[in-house]
Amino acid sequence: MLFTEILRVALSAVQANKLRSFLTMLGIVIGVGAVITMVALGSGAQKAVQDRIAALGTNLLSVYAGQSFMRGVASAERVSLTTDDAVALSSEATLLSAVIPELSRNQQVEYGNRNINVNVLGTVPEYLPVNNYEVAAGRMFTAGDGIARKRVAVLGSAVPEMLDANAVAMIGQQILIRGVPFEIIGIMAEKGSTSSWRDPDEQIWIPLQTAQYRIFGSDRVNSITVQVVHPDSMNVAMIEIEGVLRTEHGIPPGRDNDFQIRNRAEFLETYEETTRTFTFLLGAIAAVSLLVGGIGIMNIMLVSVSERTREIGVRKAMGATRRNILMQFLIEALVLCLMGGTVGIVVGAGGAVALSRLANWATFVSPGAVLVAVLFSAAVGLFFGAWPARRASLLDPIEALRYE
Q1: Would you kindly state where each structural domain of the chain is located, as residue ranges?
Q2: What confidence category does residue 76 fall into, taking pLDDT thresholds of 50, 70 and 90?
Q3: Which pLDDT score is estimated for 374?
């Protein structure tokens, strides 16, 4: 028998029992659909984390104030970072391309008859390119604005909506921060949340010097963000920063640091690893239903061999070889799995889209997951169809013709 003839006979056998073929495929449809949907959920979460890492920047370090230690015992007094620390890092550290001091607190903000409480961040103009921010309307304040301690503010993209105002129309108008009037000079482009504890679109940026001397009354800073020249130099840069700050703070050898240096991307990378493991777990659980579907195919194929024993005998009597019979039943099982897999891909992708739109869950149907699902469904067909096909090919033609 030619391959095309074998394929035609196998397809006709599948078509002859439409309901049984559909019920047989249903297990594969559910299995593949579940795999696609679950992997899409996990991949969506993983992609969201990757986007957050990209938004943060892969070469950023944050320096935070810590506690002073005396003979290994933490002091009750909290050590603070100052702008002098930022100046020292800028002038003495050789592996840093930018040093961004930051001072932020939640403050009452008034605009017209609206009143909100949001984070007010005092910083320098370089904050935008280092943290991948863009100004959607107006402009960012300049270094000159900071030196002059001008009362100018740039609003996060969500702040105008919180104040029930038109974003573009607010430029040039005044806003009160802790009762002090500020001129609105710009509106940030939407950033999206990069962490679970703060939404950057719901904050206001003002010059650092203005924040220190007109709002907060302190020359301290909450943190210093530094940009390393090259991501591969992160560890060396951390050692360099530590040396500069220990010298600046007058910490003698053998005494613990009174500051902390953190790689912000490490937190999200840990979360990414967790979501990757979660994706594999979801996919493995969903793959169990594929195995159940494969067992159903084996069961139906064994029943089909029993029902078509006389047909097999006639084919062998007319010259069909064991290989021909084996191929015929393997192709039948493979067709059932591939058809079920194709429908399952559509069902799984549709389920992922539905979850994304209805539940606002992050989903991502990757081509790799679709390819794996197709190959896995084909493998299930070959594996679970092999035993019934072999059994059919080993039937004795004389005994098969006598079968009732």
Answers
A1: 3-53+269-402, 67-257
A2: very low
A3: 76
